[in-house]
Specification:
alpha+beta; Glutaredoxin; five-stranded mixed β-sheet; 8 helices; 15 strands
């Protein structure tokens, strides 16, 4: 089987960033100037008849240099980010442990030159994901949110903290991070517009199964994690609407040669299974490139992929779903393409990394259908 792998998995995430921010590396994250869905407008839709929660406040990174750095002239310093975020629970796989996730505008309002630029090699991101749940706060920029430290909520204020030692900071300094975010609300949509269409303009099936309440880890024997993604008709398409037939979910990138090989054989596989009386859908979850696996392809890029391989099957714009539900758990065993073979009841019956032919998937489906 041919697979395009990127080792270690961190490369999958950092490859789509413009640079590495030492100031927030390791346990504190990288401040990637990465643009995925995080470049979406954080203003609430005031025409929406609903309410979205908001957060507003500041978090300060106190930098403590070690004795060696201080002997070389470094001085302890601090920088502060100011945040305003609107609830966006449209991609729960980014933070399964969160009670709420916010897409936030972020700006360094104090200490940019005197502190941040001293310990960072890249520009700060101007949008970030923030979340909290279970007494923990989470933060991310473009990919899944990572756990940061304790969070306490009282009287509508979330108090957060995190301590990062030198080993985790990636430098000759440690961080003491503290802040407070005030909760509010405003007219808006907590799903940020990611509600499936009543019918799909591209003609996809609409099973309308019950709301998904499972976790967001893809494993054989588990239910396929659900999600909503744009298609070439610009509809928001729910993955679980393909329930009722066998499903092969292919996690692909546009410049991945084995992904292209799989796409070129996709329609013939579907037709051959139909001749055997077995209905199969192949759904492609597409990333723009191997250097931007956490990115989201445009409608034009979806059309380019469809035209290149004469596809009649769904091609959906991945929103870090593949990396989140499988890549971060599989680690170095993850690669492009990765396939989930799914039964009509949405149970994952096989996972394959790499592509040789569709014969393997056909055998799995036939065995399950017996």
């Amino acid at each position: 089987m041919t697979t395009h792998r990127l080792f270690p998995l961190a490369v999958l995430l950092l490859a789509s960033c413009t640079g590495t921010d030492k100031a927030d590396s390791g346990a504190a994250d990288t401040d990637a100037a990465e643009e995925s869905d995080a470049d979406a407008d954080t203003d609430a839709d005031t025409d929406f008849d609903g309410v979205a929660r908001t957060v507003a406040g500041t978090i300060t990174w106190n930098v403590d240099f070690n004795a060696t750095a201080e002997a070389d002239g470094a001085e302890d310093c601090a920088y502060t980010r100011t945040y305003f975020g609107v609830e966006d629970n449209s991609a729960p796989w980014l933070c399964p442990g969160c009670d709420a996730v916010f897409l936030a505008d972020a700006e360094i309002t104090e200490g940019r030159e005197a502190c941040f630029d001293v310990v960072s090699t890249s520009d700060p991101a101007d949008t970030e994901w923030l979340g909290y749940g279970g007494g923990v706060w989470y933060r991310g920029s473009g990919a899944w949110l990572s756990e940061r430290g304790p969070a306490t909520e009282a009287d509508g204020v979330i108090t957060v903290e995190q301590v990062v030692d030198e080993a985790d900071s990636g430098g000759d300094y440690a961080f003491d991070i503290r802040g407070a975010l005030t909760l509010g609300e405003q007219p808006g949509d907590p799903l940020a517009g990611w509600t499936p269409a009543e019918t799909y303009a591209c003609g996809w099936p609409k099973a309308d199964p019950a709301a998904y309440e499972g976790d967001y880890v893809a494993a054989v024997g588990a239910t396929l994690p659900d999600g909503v993604f744009h298609d070439v008709c610009e509809d928001a398409v729910r993955l679980h609407d393909f329930a009722g037939t066998y499903l092969v979910v292919e996690i692909s990138a546009m410049d991945c040669p084995p992904c292209q090989d799989a796409a070129s054989e996709e329609e013939a596989f579907i037709a051959s299974m139909a001749e055997e009386g077995i209905a199969v859908h192949v759904v492609t979850m597409l990333a723009p490139s191997l250097s931007n696996t956490a990115g989201t392809p445009t409608t034009d890029e979806l059309q380019e992929w469809i035209d290149a391989f004469d596809l009649a099957s769904p091609v959906l714009a991945d929103r870090v779903w593949g990396l989140s539900v499988y890549g971060q758990y599989a680690g170095d065993d993850y690669g492009y393409p990765t396939f989930f073979v799914v039964a009509p009841d949405l149970e994952i019956i096989d996972i394959n990394v790499g592509f040789g032919s569709y014969d393997t998937f056909a055998d799995v489906i036939r065995a399950d259908a017996e």
